[in-house]
Specification:
This protein has 4 helices and 10 strands. By secondary structure, it is α+β, with helices and mostly antiparallel strands.
């Protein structure tokens, strides 16, 4: 009899986990999380042109969405990946400046994220790769006494459109996200 009851225990746990009310994230948000990182204003890039110390430097993506480099001028960066930027810089340098440019681009510093609502210290904070919603809230001083800890929303730009989704505390934060914690009703 005990063996029969114990064999039903895992089935009961499985059924209970299916009843959880964890908010679901939209497909667009999940697609953004697994896609290559797209640059935007505020990101700082380290551009290395091998053998050309005068061209290798850190560049910030400006509000217009570009970086400005010596010789080649403005390079559009908003919505592009670091690999695409490296290819663009190589092509521009190849047009009259260098025969075989070898360029590497990496994100030196990500744009900040923002925490609002029922957190202890709302504001702008430095993004750290791999950061979760829970860690972002901890950086902002944690939940306030009136916070609804089950309703945390993130607003982010996805493919040029602003999307807002309810996230779990274990979901990742992206650079530029605005994390909003609502006030509980009771």
């Amino acid at each position: 009899m005990r063996l029969h009851v114990l064999s039903l225990f895992p089935l009961g746990l499985l059924l209970l986990t299916g009843c959880s009310t964890a908010p679901l994230v939209t497909d667009a948000v999940h697609a953004e999380l697994v896609a290559p990182y797209q640059l935007d204003a505020g990101d700082q890039l380290r551009v290395v042109v091998f053998g050309q110390d005068d061209l290798s430097n850190s560049y910030v993506v400006d509000q217009a969405g570009s970086i400005t480099m010596p010789l080649i001028g403005r390079v559009p960066a908003r919505g592009h990946t670091t690999t695409e930027i490296a290819g663009s810089v190589e092509q521009r340098l190849r047009n009259g400046y260098l025969r075989h440019p070898d360029v590497s681009v990496e994100v030196d510093k990500y744009r900040p994220f923002f925490a609002m609502g029922e957190v202890t210290a709302a504001g702008q904070y430095a993004f750290v790769p791999g950061m979760t919603v829970q860690q972002a809230i901890a950086v902002a001083g944690g939940f306030s006494a009136r916070a609804d800890t089950s309703s945390v929303q993130a607003t982010r730009s996805i493919g040029g459109h602003v999307e807002t989704a309810t996230l779990r505390l274990s979901d990742p934060v992206m650079p530029g996200d605005t994390i909003t914690v609502r006030e509980r009703l009771i």
